[in-house]
């Protein structure tokens, strides 16, 4: 019995000598760069919330119409109501990767119009801003052609704000039968945000501080009609 107790004491002593406290910061250092688990997201947001840019993003988001037309009873994992099941899948996937995501964030254009992208993304590691559009009706038999034309026009609006395809404006597409490949969305997210050779290393997102400077005079009252895509004239 005495021998067993001495062995336990020795093991505990070794443990105390080599033990290091785990914090969100050193856990992230140990993990592969492409993996940011969702349970660290709270710590990331808590840190970011102390920065002016994050608080300002929340303030601008709160100026969005409270009950925009077209929102359905379909909700994401965090309870955000959305327009389609496919949007929920994209949103939940982005958040599960540790990204900070706003659904239909109000963006003011230089001419005063307000547009609402599907997802505005803040990367907590680089504090840069991206736009993600899921083009759910791209292959629609009846509406697809006009939908495609409308999106091409919409890219000009995004370009006026500094968002461009191939860098910080990201587009995902449905399957040809109108469904969604959730695994493909996850792979896209990893490649764009968590791979050294792609967007994150080249800092292609707009800095959060610059984004806020451009949007600081947002006046949501200028948006006469809430239109998430600006495409409702033919949808």
Describe the structure.
Helix content is 41%, strand content 11%. The protein is an alpha+beta fold and 235 residues long. Strands 1, 4, 5, 6 and 7 form a 5-stranded mixed β-sheet that branches. It starts with a helix and ends in a 20-residue tail after the last helix. Mean pLDDT is 77; it is low at 197-202 and 222-235.
Summarize the structure.
This protein is an alpha+beta fold and 235 residues long.
Bin the strand percentage.
Answer: 5-15%
Quickly name the level 1 CATH class: Alpha Beta
Query: What gap, in angstroms, lies between the N and C termini?
Result: 79 Å
Low-confidence stretches: 197-202, 222-235
Given helix and strand content, the structural type is alpha+beta
- Overall form: elongated
Bin the helical content: 40-55%
* Count of discrete domains: 1
Integer average pLDDT: 77
What is the fold-level CATH name, i.e. the topology? Trna Endonuclease, Chain: A, domain 1
Write the layout of secondary structure elements.
Blueprint: H1 2-18, H2 24-30, H3 41-48, H4 52-62, H5 85-96, E1 100-103, E2 107-108, E3 114-115, E4 119-123, E5 128-134, H6 144-160, E6 169-172, H7 182-193, H8 199-202, E7 206-207, H9 208-215
Parallel strand pairs: 5-6
Antiparallel strand pairs: 1-4, 2-3, 4-5, 5-7
